[in-house]
Design brief:
Strands 1-2-3-4-5-7-6 form a seven-stranded mixed beta sheet, with helices on one face. A three-stranded antiparallel beta sheet has the order 8-9-10, with no helix packed on it. Strand 12 and strand 13 form a beta hairpin. With 343 residues, it is of the alpha/beta class. It contains 14 helices and 13 strands. Helix 6 packs parallel to helix 8. The two termini are 39 Å apart. It folds into two domains: 202 residues, Transcription Regulator spoIIAA (2-Layer Sandwich); 72 residues, Arc Repressor Mutant, subunit A (Orthogonal Bundle), CATH 1.10.10. The protein is 43% helix and 19% strand.
Length: 343
Amino acid sequence: MVEMIAKELHLRKNEISEPVETIYFGGGTPSLLDLGEINQILEKIDSNYSVISKPEITLEANPDDLNSIKLNELKSSAINRLSIGIQSFFDEDLKLMNRAHNANEAMNSIKTAQDAGFENITIDLIYGGQTTSDENWKKNLEIALESGVPHISSYALTVEPKTVLAHQIQTKKLEDLDEDQQERQFQMLVQTLTSHDFIHYEISNFGKKGFLSRHNSNYWKGKSYLGVGPSAHSYDGKNRSWNPPNNSIYIKNLAENKLVNQVESLSENDRFNELIMIRLRTIYGLNLDELKSNFPDAFIDEFFRELQPHLDHQLVQIENGILYITDKGKFLADGIASSLFRV
């Protein structure tokens, strides 16, 4: 697999003309890679692409993979940011989410990473599940703050089709998710973290000054990105492409020097909708002049007609030509954005 990822990086080297600012080892489980495999991929990037002198290089990891030996190994590489999938500091939550680690491993992984010398650490936390009481959610946030991590990504639990959780709800073994609880815990999240100097720079992301994710920020600003490996997605501003999710198909084709990514040219509607979605989720907002200069008048007229009820209900506001979601509207951000889409 690593050899084929390296080959794909070589075959697609002409797809990126801008200097590479960020590198992200995302899931599956990249923490299973050993030091030699990580370095093999990074060396292939360096030899085929123009990379800035101090790129942000993130590796996603599960808490149960992060012992002191592994972390000291990672620290000796160019990896300078860790994303740890904590999800919760309570065993009952982790069991509900079918996670392999336990609460002790969650807490120990952060401390061990810090002891190894990692400062730029982000953790994931999940709220709004059937086992997450308001009291436990408050405690989760307290533990996260006490750990000293400078970045937290937090999401409401969702029920995906054909999962154990979906089956348990369908068979009445578990109650369905409570939207009121999820909104309440979202507000607890925002109030707690912003009162401790975290910048709420995207609906689900909070960072201390100097620790906002450069990789994710570039995505939300609509910059191009190249994804390699099975299931990886890429975007060049006009086209979106994706690799097959099947490992054997991916390896077989690349062994024969064949790229297997499918390419979709984004329609004007697609580009309009994506711009609205990603910008409204961020602290940067949606520049209305940019919208007007890039899309037909008919798009803009309909957009403002659909926008007016949200302005009336103070779910959004316009300041200096920038459209922002208000604090009142943040939990409803995706719904607000989708109501402004062209179909």
